[in-house]
Amino acid sequence: MRIAVPKEIKNNENRVALTPAGAQEFTKNGHQVFIQQSAGLGSGFPDLAYQNAGAIITPTIEETYSKGEMIMKVKEPIEPEYSLIKENQLLFTYFHFASNKPLTEAMIKSKAICLAYETVEKDDKTLPLLVPMSEVAGRMSVQKGANYLEKPLGGRGILLGGVPGTLPAKVLILGGGIVGTQAAWMASGLGADVIILDVSLPRMRHLSTVMPKNVKTMMSNEFNIRHLIKNADLIIGAVLIPGAKAPHLITRDMLKEMLPGTVLVDVAVDQGGCIETCKPTTHEDPTYTIDGVLHYCVANMPGAVPYTSTLALTNATLPYAMELAQKGWQEACDKYPELHHGFNIIKGDIVYQAVADTFHLPYVPVSYYLNHH
């Protein structure tokens, strides 16, 4: 199969969908790999590393798209790319269709096969291609929060771990999933006082057994949230409802209850956020202040640490991509049934129920296409 990797053109997106090591695995198995010139530079992978792995460097984005039977990307295609996508081409990337109608319409029109990282789902409800980026974002949320608690950056002027004779910062984490757990590890490791709020007792029991003594768990409800925000220094929003908008656990009126210089980091911002006053920001202009409370709401946090993020992402995507290349998209589902859920649009039909429902468009079960091969 011919695999093509274009350079990401979204604002400050430095990740790349394939490492030189991944390219080598493909070429070793008899596939052709086309990498757009300088696509890996932002992640620290020069063109020469890809050439040494057997890949062919293509000079332009147009030529890259024209070569590939499978296009591997990190972020969803943006408008300049729509016209480059061809019928029957397989696109393997993050799409987040439910929050982007123009993209959905463009992909329907292209008659391409759209396989979304974020909806590949195993029987136990885990999302194997979303997990690595959630781990990165969870850990980064504390790194960023600790930074913005510094006075010159608009925070309270408090050191996350404190020092002997002073109290450490209080960190409140909304949600005990992957993001919340990773955030708690980082914050507790730096010596902060951490409270994780969640609605699942089994999850809280698990966290209580694996977390260090400076991490406590509490049931998530409005009463507890209103009580805890009064003294919190750093609040991290880590609520995810797969494919749908996150609920607003912190509302506008609650900001007045917080200490001036409190820092809010909403990791769920790309799905609408769980803090009402959050709106997506960029790495160029990451923060803003409302009622004396600093908001950090960058929608692609892992893009700031592209070397780590690219390695973490490609570790997860490569086994699937290899199977897709070896067997084709229909047969690949035999080995990895979780790929069924990954298909969102096939040849002009929406095959993922939540996307069809969001835009009130007709839905065709993915089995229609998988049983006709």
UniProtKB/TrEMBL annotation:
GO terms for molecular function: alanine dehydrogenase activity; metal ion binding; nucleotide binding. InterPro entries: Ala_DH, Ala_DH/PNT_CS2, AlaDH/PNT_N, AlaDH/PNT_NAD(H)-bd, NAD(P)-bd_dom_sf. One of its GO terms (biological process) is L-alanine catabolic process. GO terms for cellular component: plasma membrane. Keywords: Magnesium, Metal-binding, NAD, Nucleotide-binding, Oxidoreductase. It catalyses: L-alanine + NAD(+) + H2O = pyruvate + NH4(+) + NADH + H(+). NCBIfam families: alaDH. Belongs to the AlaDH/PNT family. This is Alanine dehydrogenase.
